[in-house]
Design a protein that fits this description.
- By secondary structure, the protein is of the alpha/beta class.
- It is built from 20 helices and 13 strands.
- The strands form 3 sheets. Strands 1, 4, 5, 6, 7 and 13 form a 6-stranded mixed sheet that branches. It has a 5-stranded mixed sheet with strand order 10-9-11-8-12, sandwiched between helices.
- A hairpin with a 2-residue loop joins strand 2 and strand 3.
- Helix 12 (316-323) packs across helix 13.
Length: 494
């Protein structure tokens, strides 16, 4: 995947958004995989040549920490750092998405890319092949465990007493990890160190760490192990997991550079050192590893809300007016707004979305919305226009309105391209591409699995499908609840 970054040049139109042109929609285009490229040797460039050609070519992976597409916008911790580093060098950034992490160092040393930025751990073996930058972070392996029932009302001391805080207490515990992972060997060593047996449960080889973390959160398994940065990122989705117990020494996460590029390495290290204590660096780290990611906030009762009086929010009149323009029941639109912002016109998400309907800046700009100064009505107008465009797209494929609403909601949450991918996958794997539950919904859940998001039919890569699946269910459940509220006049309650 290649992309020359320029938001002003993004081709933004739902008319282009199909499974094939999803990447064009986002201002991104795929580079051919290395195996399909010319066999003519590529000259190896150092800093001077990179600046002369005007672009930095970086290889990254499609994951929740490196690079992904969310609501039509490019995201990722390493993606944002790469963008800033390219700007520092005065060049454009070109991304190449890894299809096989086993070949990334070959691609680097062959001159296909200048940097590999893919959450790499520095090891002795790897240092024989490439050079590494100064560490972006130091990351230990941590135990992922579920907090007990009622943890919200516990003191910090009570919570710590209920959790494993000493590795000796892992004796006899069931801990699920992939056998081929570094976590498996670490647990074996730890079992020897403490002189007690740890029950290591072998997870299937195709289960990613994030999937195992979600199983801890849901109660399907007791414990797993993860690198701290991955665990912290997932904790922003699952508030009921704890990731504070380390089981290893910190390891360096850094970028890989060819040994023949000493000037690039020196410039990179200078930039990393200067940036370490900056407010910008703290903000980007917090955005991906600390900020709460789940849509919406607590569903408390606002001062204008009266379930017994048929009132959902103080914006009910606006919601009724503009829901009519898209042919939706007003309670359905209210359920979406509740999920997105909890009816707060000043709500701001970790991804930069603002207002009642939480449009990300790129989408908001397309619909003429200034997300900083928008009124509640302006936010609803832009949001309903976006819903109308999504509905128009899906109407060609999903004629049944009640079924189509599920596809529209999923597209509003994840971005249309990811849902198009899931529908294409459903068709490929024998599911019904016209039904959401247990069909297209099932496939979007699989889009966090590398075996699925690296399928050639997938154009938008990694997607945290668990969030999108839950988003659709929660909105429709809330909508059914709202429909049971009797209609009365809006009465402000003090």
């Amino acid at each position: 995947m290649t992309f020359a970054y320029s938001r002003n040049k993004i081709i933004y139109s739902l008319a282009f958004l199909t499974g094939i042109t999803c990447i064009l929609f986002y201002g991104i285009s795929f580079r051919k995989p290395a195996a399909q490229q010319s066999l003519v040797p590529v000259p190896i460039h150092d800093l001077g040549e990179i600046q002369k050609r005007g672009k930095l070519i970086a290889l990254t992976d499609n994951s929740s920490t490196s690079f992904y597409i969310y609501k039509g916008d490019s995201m990722g911790y390493e993606y944002e750092l790469l963008n800033a580093f390219a700007k520092e060098l005065g060049v454009k950034l070109e991304l190449v998405i890894a299809k096989d992490m086993n070949t990334v160092f070959s691609q680097l040393n062959n001159g296909e890319v200048d940097i590999v930025a893919a959450n790499l751990t520095v090891t002795k073996e790897r240092l024989n092949l490439v050079d590494f930058s100064s560490p972006l972070m130091l990351v230990p392996q941590v135990l992922v465990q579920r907090k007990p029932k009622g943890w919200e009302n516990m003191t910090k001391e009570e919570l710590n007493d209920s959790l494993i805080r000493n590795v000796v207490d892992l004796s006899g515990k069931n801990i699920s990890v992939r056998k081929g992972s570094s976590f498996y060997s670490r647990l074996q060593s730890l079992s020897e160190e403490i002189g007690e047996k740890i029950n290591i449960i072998e997870a299937p080889g195709d289960q990613e760490t994030e999937e195992l973390i979600s199983k801890v959160a849901s109660g399907e398994i007791d414990y797993t192990i993860a690198d701290e940065n991955i665990a912290l990122s997932n904790q922003t989705y699952y508030s009921n997991i704890d990731v504070e117990t380390s089981i290893s020494f910190p390891q360096k996460i850094a970028w890989a550079i060819r040994k023949e590029s000493p000037q690039l390495l020196a410039a990179m290290n200078d930039w990393i050192e200067k940036r370490k204590s900056s407010k910008e660096n703290v903000a980007v780290y917090s955005k991906y590893f600390k900020a709460k990611k789940k849509s919406g906030g607590p569903r408390g009762v606002g001062k204008y809300v009266s379930y017994s009086g048929g009132v959902i929010s103080e914006y009910d009149d606006l919601i009724k007016t503009y829901s009519a323009t898209i042919g939706w029941d007003w309670q359905l639109l209210a359920a979406l707004i509740s999920q997105e912002s909890n009816f707060s016109p000043t709500a701001r998400s970790w991804a930069g979305a603002n207002g009642l309907m939480q449009l990300v800046p790129q989408t908001a700009k397309h619909y003429g919305l200034d997300t900083i100064d928008a009124t509640a009505e302006q936010s609803i107008i832009a949001g309903t226009k976006y819903i109308s465009d999504l509905d128009r797209y899906w109407k060609k494929y999903i004629p049944n309105k009640s079924e189509r609403i599920k596809f529209v909601l999923a597209s509003y949450n994840a971005g249309l391209g990811h849902v198009v991918d899931a529908r294409n996958l459903a068709e490929k794997y024998g599911k019904d591409p016209g039904l959401w539950y247990d069909n297209v919904d099932y496939m979007i859940l699989q889009k966090s699995n590398p075996l699925i998001y690296n399928d050639p039919i997938v154009k938008c890569g990694y997607c945290r499908g668990q969030e999108t699946s839950a988003y659709v269910r929660e909105i429709l459940n809330r909508y059914n609840h709202y429909k049971n509220i009797p209609e009365r006049t809006l009465v402000a309650q003090n």
